[in-house]
């Protein structure tokens, strides 16, 4: 597998700068091979290619970690059940992918690369199919929107209840969500903002400053009574209950969602671990979840919350970007660390934790984009 991993990473450099062409060729070839597959995809394919490539890149980077490789791909296979992907489709997908890679790479492609991708794709497909076969859950859950609250012009907090079948999740995980009423066959990922509960109610925090399809509809169009579809939970930003280390949580914007869920789960059993939450935004009005966090502080002496604003000089609290504030309060070397926010915010916070020599296994993170 080491040689295969080397060849995959080496050959990927031939196409990574031309992803748009790669994804365009892949889908054109795929739908030519099997026109019926087109109905599994959104009417508008904008962004769909990027998601394919992200999955490929993630798979390549987990090749050096056999356990992570297996877990990621089995989860991906389970998740693809929501798209109605069947076992017979994988062979067609493989032919289209290899054809797109050869065409995009051009003269730099060789037989060694070709065989490495054939072998890797066979392993990927087998693990994905095994993950799908072993999953006893439905491909997706129907859920009804219960509440919808706007916070400013671009943030909404909504709750929904899964219907028919209980939806099992762990605090810190995310689900992909579809709005059949507005954007059928378009799925986007959102972290669940509360710990599991007996009512089977899930909370989501959504930000959409622009005209994003799903996030825009969730913020501006969805109302109580509307129906959603939720896919199986994924993600490993979950609590290690066996750990005795204190905990650092860093949230930026709607990255608060999984952090809030983690704190809620800790509230159900924690008595010995100090938990420090840092919550940042540009302006005080963007700290929509601060009051709820402060209520939790009042009920749990082991919890502290530090809020910060980067562009609000009148804010009565810490000023500056949240990674810089976290650095001022460090070091965090002996903590379990959870980080959630924009890609830039997460990268900056990870640099702070690296400078504090926090062991990488003690760091878990999630990134949020504006979709």
The overall pLDDT, averaged over residues, is 89
Please describe the biggest sheet, giving its number of strands, its sense, and whether it closes into a barrel: 6 strands, antiparallel
Architecture per CATH nomenclature, i.e. the level-2 architecture of the largest domain: Orthogonal Bundle
Sequence of strands across the biggest β-sheet: 4-3-6-1-2-5
Based on Cα principal axes, name the global outline: globular
Number of helices: 11
Proportion of residues in extended strands: 15-25%
Provide the gyration radius in Å.
Answer: 22 Å
Binned, the helix content reads 25-40%
The total domain count is: 3
What does it look like?
This protein is an alpha/beta fold and 371 residues long. The chain folds into three domains: 2-133, Globins (Globin-like, Orthogonal Bundle), CATH 1.10.490; 141-230, Elongation Factor Tu (Ef-tu), domain 3 (Beta Barrel); 247-368, Rossmann fold (3-Layer(aba) Sandwich), CATH 3.40.50. The protein is built from eleven helices and twelve strands. The chain has helices spanning 2-12, 19-33, 48-61, 66-79, 87-105, 111-133, 213-220, 256-267, 290-299, 322-329, 343-355; strands at 141-151, 155-162, 174-179, 183-191, 201-207, 227-230, 247-252, 275-281, 303-309, 318-319, 336-342, 363-368. A six-stranded antiparallel sheet has the order 4-3-6-1-2-5. A six-stranded parallel sheet has the order 10-9-8-7-11-12, with helices on both faces. The longest helix is centred in the N-terminal third of the chain and has 23 residues, at 111-133. The mean pLDDT is 89.
């Amino acid at each position: 597998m080491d040689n295969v991993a080397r060849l995959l990473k080496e050959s990927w450099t031939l196409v990574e700068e031309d992803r748009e062409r790669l994804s365009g060729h892949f889908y054109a070839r795929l739908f030519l091979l099997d026109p019926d597959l087109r109905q599994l995809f959104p009417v508008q394919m904008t962004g769909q290619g990027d998601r394919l490539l992200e999955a490929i890149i993630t798979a390549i980077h987990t090749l050096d970690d056999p356990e992570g490789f297996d877990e990621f791909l089995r989860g991906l296979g389970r998740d693809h059940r929501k798209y109605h992907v069947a076992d017979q489709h994988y062979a067609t997908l493989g032919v289209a992918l290899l054809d797109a890679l050869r065409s995009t790479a051009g003269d730099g492609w060789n037989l060694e690369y070709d065989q490495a991708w054939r072998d890797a794709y066979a392993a990927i497909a087998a693990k994905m199919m095994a993950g799908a076969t072993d999953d006893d859950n439905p491909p997706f859950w129907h859920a009804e929107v219960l509440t919808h609250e706007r916070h400013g012009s671009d943030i909404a907090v909504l709750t929904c209840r899964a219907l028919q079948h209980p939806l099992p999740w762990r605090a810190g995980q995310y689900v992909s969500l579809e709005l059949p009423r507005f954007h059928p066959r378009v799925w986007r990922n959102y972290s669940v903002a509360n710990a599991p509960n007996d009512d089977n109610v899930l909370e989501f925090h959504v930000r959409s400053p622009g005209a994003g399809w799903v996030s825009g509809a969730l913020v501006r169009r969805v109302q109580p009574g509307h129906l959603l579809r939720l896919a199986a939970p994924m993600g490993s930003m979950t609590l290690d209950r066996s750990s005795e280390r204190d905990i650092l949580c860093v949230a930026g914007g709607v990255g608060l969602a999984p952090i809030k869920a983690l704190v809620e789960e800790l509230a159900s059993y924690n008595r010995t671990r100090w938990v420090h939450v840092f919550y940042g935004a540009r302006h005080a009005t963007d700290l929509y979840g601060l009051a709820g966090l402060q209520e939790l502080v009042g009920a749990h002496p082991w919890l502290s919350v530090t809020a910060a604003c980067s562009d609000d000089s009148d804010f009565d609290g810490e000023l500056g970007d949240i990674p810089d504030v976290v650095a001022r309060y460090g070091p965090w070397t002996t903590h379990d660390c959870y980080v959630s926010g924009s890609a830039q915010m997460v990268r900056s916070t990870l640099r702070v934790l690296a400078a504090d020599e926090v062991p990488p296994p003690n760091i878990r993170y999630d990134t949020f984009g504006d979709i």
